[in-house]
Amino acid sequence: AAGADGAPAVIDGFVFPLALPVEADLAYSDGFSEPGAPGCHGQAWRCATAIEPPVGTPVVAAAPGLLEAAAPAEAEAGITFWIRTGTGERIGYGPLAAYADGVGPGATVAAGQALGAAGPRLTFAWERDGARLNPHPLLMATRPSTPA
What we know:
By secondary structure, the chain is mainly β. Helix content is about 10%, strand content about 40%.
């Protein structure tokens, strides 16, 4: 699959953003274009995937990069921080129930590094060069959704 810019819809070194045992159930669906306020990029779309992990599940960096705080409008849409990779990608997360020590704006993280603990819902978004991409296929390729 390709993104809107024609580049492959992959992130080099991507790891699933939750550290769960292989046998654990995990529910999420492709809600990227479902209606949802306040939406993104002027559209009434969610532009992210909502993952429903068990509360307290370890959340990890899906790729290496630099942490940055979300803008107020992004926070309203469920994203509280981004990982900015060195390849023009931004991976959005939010909100976490608890944050790991040292996790905050300006911190550098490695793929798989602990970011904190999940609450009942984790919003996961992906941007490339300012355009939102649907993260659902990437998530499904690394850990398919299973019944809860």
